[in-house]
Amino acid sequence: MNKLKKIKIGTIIRIIIQLLLIGFGGYYLYMFVAPVFGIIFNIGSVIGAFLSLAVILVGIFLKRIIAFCKKHYKSKKGKIVLNSVFTVLCIGIICFSVTLGSMLSATRTDAENENTVIVLGCAVHGTTPSYTLKSRINAAYDYMISNPDSIAVLSGGQGNGEQITEAQCMYNILTEKGIESSRLYLEENSTNTNENIAFSKQIIEENDLSTDIAVVSSDYHLKRATMICEKNGFDNVHRISAPSTYFDKPTFYLRDLLGVVKEFIIR
């Protein structure tokens, strides 16, 4: 009777875990795939969809996976292989958690009175800023209003489908909002974050501006942006966070998590 009771409890627990895995995987599969139809597609979308699908499959076949592990764990070779797989999986989860934690800790604005601001560009649709770019412009505007002595380097070249550079788009909106043009420098040649920072540094040095900087970017991007600033020789880097949408976060956080790992490896 007790044995039967244990079996039933074990079965119930397994079914609950299966349902949680399938539900979790299904939710994030939707979150990674749906933005593709809104023209948000990057490596984060691909890897996120793949991992979500893997979680769903584990949930569906959990009973068989458990039976397989029990069967092969009895042999010495099987035990070594399974222990190795579980160890790698645990290390991966720990590394993922630590990296994500460091990204989340960098999402808060900590700039207070830095006079030099670097605003990182993002997509422009024709001459209209994307939501992400508009969010960064607004964050820069609020900071510059609160710090009237600050200047900003607006960084971003012209990509496919953009009729003007990202820097020019930011300049147009900030001046329309009342920021004096004399407080704005345009960097219009960059095509990625590394170039954003490197080319902006040239402008800062050429104009003898303060190298104690505040970098403006989306919350998910600030950790990597800070690392790149430090790699380019900025010793005192502060952050100004521009909020992203809830719908965008999974794809962009995963994409930038991979970028943070890459920056850590190559630095």
Describe the model.
By secondary structure, the protein is an alpha/beta fold. The protein has nine helices and seven strands. The strands form two sheets. The protein has a five-stranded parallel β-sheet with strand order 5-4-1-6-7. A hairpin with a 2-residue loop joins β2 (124-125) and β3 (128-129). It is elongated and about 75 Å long. The model has no long low-confidence stretch (mean pLDDT 93).
Could you name the key traits of this structure?
7 strands; alpha/beta; single chain; 267 residues; five-stranded parallel sheet
User: Strand portion, in percent?
Assistant: 5-15%
Outline: elongated
Number of strands: 7
Gyration radius over CA = 24 Å
Number of helices: 9
Arithmetic mean of pLDDT: 93
Question: From the helix content, strand content and strand pairing, which structural class follows?
Answer: alpha/beta
Distance between the termini: 61 Å
Write down the secondary-structure element order: HHHHEEEHEHEHEHEH
Low-confidence stretches: none
Largest sheet: 5 strands, parallel
Helix content: 55-70%
Strand order within the widest beta sheet: 5-4-1-6-7
